[in-house]
Amino acid sequence: MMPPRSLRAALARRIADRLGTGSDAGMTLTEVVVALLLTVIAVTIMIPSLIPFIQVINSSKVHSTSTSDAQIVFERIDSEVRFAEAINQQGYGTAVLSDGKRARYVEWLTPAESSPTGKALCTQWRFVPATNSIEERQWNLDAAPPSTFTQRLELAIDQPPVDATKANEDAYGRPTYPFAMRSASQAGAQPMQTLTLWVYAGTSTSNATTQIRTRFAARNSAITAVTNDNQGTGWGQISAAGYGDPAGYQDPTAGKKVPLVCDATVTSSGVVTTWATGVFRP
Is the pTM value of this prediction over 0.90? Predict the structure, then answer.
């Protein structure tokens, strides 16, 4: 038999009072302040212990991204250089950037029979220290170079000078990082031109640095390539052996003429057009 309703209500109130749930009154202001202070103290104690884990996660992410992007650059340059018939001597751009440095360039020419466009194809890569990016553009030899580049690596680190005097430059004032062309030579038993790619990627502050340094061979090139230097002059001007280009390109740093393929003068339908100064290496 069920107890009367009034008795059940009284029992319920008594149980609620014993459990502390009978009152609908909230926390006092003092209790709220104390709770907040305890929460702040707990978080303050926990954050220092979490920082190493956050740094490890961030470093892992940077390392993974930089390694992946650097691998893409490696594979792309490998697939392009192997078909080149001539690689230009690497050099600086003409514009001084916001960090007081200039971009560093290298180019090569792929013959029509090996080009994906069916025409002689120019490929240009550059490293921009101001933005820590490595970029690329391509154009057919009978057309003007595009005005924009495609970014291939956004976490490139400018390598500190290996020599305070030369600042990662060779004896001819050319940059050696991240691109360096090496001429074909009979004396050195090197029948083809090669391109060395040397890249640090990541962030120097997070210890998440990836390094790639390798050399690619231009399999269509030879000692007689127009940009080759078989005489050891470092610039590849026309020599007694008949190699090189007597016209060349006036290098703004060395004050010497350097033979370049893919230069700013192109021929289209038999008409020679000279593009504005700075289009080639801005």
Answer: no
